[in-house]
Amino acid sequence: MGGMVMRPSAPGAMINGSGGGGMPEMMHHHRMMMHMTFFWGKNAEILFPGWPGYDNLGMYMLALVVVFMLAFFVEFLSSCKLIKESSNRVAAGSLQTLLHGIRIGLAYMVMLAVMSFNVGVFLVAIAGHAAGFFFFGSRAFNPSPESWKTSDLPPMSC
């Protein structure tokens, strides 16, 4: 990067590596620690670098809502019935494939969010899946027995 090097002895200081006579430029960053065990707190990186930010409760709450909605939508896609019985097989298969790809992609996003090891993210992911299943997959809102096993997509295997 243009002759700039990092010195291990001075974290955050960038020094011109051309002749050693350059002035150090201090760059102040709050570096997030990568947790490898569950932890409580709002200072976490979830899905994207720097998101939800350091010491920002509002953005952390937004991140929790996003994770909840992703998990909820995965359950919706797991139980939706959009394809009509009389549909063209190729068109129905294409739609099924598209829905499957979206569902799996969202499920991986939830998994990656949980891999932040933040307990709040873990709990809202479980709550999102549970709420989605309650509304779309359980018998609570599907009173007829024939609707209990109908979905455009096969069940996700764990």
What is the element layout, followed by pairings?
Elements: E1 4-6, E2 13-16, E3 25-26, H1 57-79, H2 89-114, H3 119-137
Antiparallel strand pairs: 1-2, 2-3
Helix pairs in contact: 1-2, 1-3
Q: What can you tell me about this protein's structure?
A:
There is one protein chain. With 158 residues, the chain is mostly helical. It has three helices and three strands. The protein folds into two domains: 31 residues, no CATH class; 116 residues, no CATH class. Strands 1-2-3 form a three-stranded antiparallel sheet, with no helix packed on it. Keywords: Copper, Copper transport, Ion transport, Membrane, Transmembrane, Transmembrane helix, Transport. Belongs to the copper transporter (Ctr) (TC 1.A.56) family. SLC31A subfamily. GO terms for molecular function: copper ion transmembrane transporter activity. This is Copper transport protein.
Q: Please describe the biggest sheet, giving its number of strands, its sense, and whether it closes into a barrel.
A: 3 strands, antiparallel
Gap between N and C termini, in Å?
45 Å
* Neighbour order of strands in the largest sheet: 1-2-3
Strand content: 5-15%
Series of H and E elements: EEEHHH
Number of helices: 3
Strands, count: 3
Structural class: mainly alpha
Identify the overall geometry. elongated
Radius of gyration of CA atoms, rounded to a whole number: 23 Å
Portion of residues within helices: 40-55%
Low-confidence stretches: 4-28
Mean pLDDT: 79
Whole-number count of domains: 2
